[in-house]
Amino acid sequence: METERSAPADSNRARIITAAARLLAENGREAVSTRAVSTAAGVQAPTIYRLFGDKQGLLDAVAAHGFAAYLREKTDLPPSGDPVEDLRAGWNLHIGFGLANPALYALMYGEPRPDATPPAALAAAAVLAAHIKRIAEVGRLRIDEARAAQLVHAVGGGTVLTLLATPEDRRDLTLSDLAREAVIAAIVTDAPAPAAPGPAGAAVALRAVLPQTSVMSANERSLLTEWLDRIARG
C-alpha cells in the first residue's frame, strides 16, 4: 500500500493500536484478528508482525495503551492528606475502569501469565503499590506492603470479574463497597500508631521508610529489603 510505505513506523503503530482497540471494544478479543486489524488500519499483515512480534504482542500493546490513557484521564491527581482515602478512591477507579472496559480488563487480568505480566497490569500494580506505601509511611499498615498489595489486587480483581459475570441489570454495586471496606479493615489500622510490638511490626515500619535513606548501596538496600520482608511475614 502506498500510504503504508510512506508512513513512519510510529504512525503505523498508532493506527494499528487504534484499530485493534476499536475492534476489541466493539466485538471482544476474538474480533482482533490479524486480517481484521490490518484491514481496519490500512496496513499489510506483515507490518503488524514486524511492529508487535505476534498477536499477543499486539494485544499487550492495546491493553497498555488503553490503560495508560485511562490513567492520564482519571488518576492524574495529587495525593490527598489521607492515604487510606486515596486507596478507596483508587479502588473505586479500578472497579469503574473494569466495568467500563470489560474486554480490555480481561486482557490485563483474565489470563494470568506469571512469566510475562502484561505491561498494563504492571502499570496498575505500580499505582497500587504507591497507595500501599503511603499508608505504610504514616504507620497505618497492619501487614507488609507486598502482602497488602496482593490482597487488594486479589479482592479487587475478583470483584470486577464477579460483577462482569453478572447481567448488568442485576449487578449489585454495593458488593464493591463491602469488599473494599473488608480489605481496608484487614490491612489498615484505625489511626496512626507506633509499630506493632515485636520484630514483625518493626520490620514493616522500617521497610516503609527505607527509600528515604541514602547511606547504603543499591545492593545493600536490596538485601536489607529482602530481610525485612522475610521478618515482616513471620
From TrEMBL:
Gene3D superfamilies, sorted: Homeodomain-like (1.10.10.60), Tetracycline Repressor, domain 2 (1.10.357.10)
PROSITE patterns listed in its UniProt record: HTH_TETR_2
Coiled-coil residue spans: none
UniProt keywords, alphabetically: DNA-binding, Transcription, Transcription regulation
Pfam families on file: TetR_N
Domain HTH tetR-type: 10-70
Source superkingdom: Bacteria
InterPro entries given in the database record: Homeodomain-like_sf, HTH-type_TetR-like_transc_reg, HTH_TetR, Tet_transcr_reg_TetR-rel_C_sf
Positions of the DNA-binding region: 33-52
Name the UniProt record assigns to this protein: TetR/AcrR family transcriptional regulator
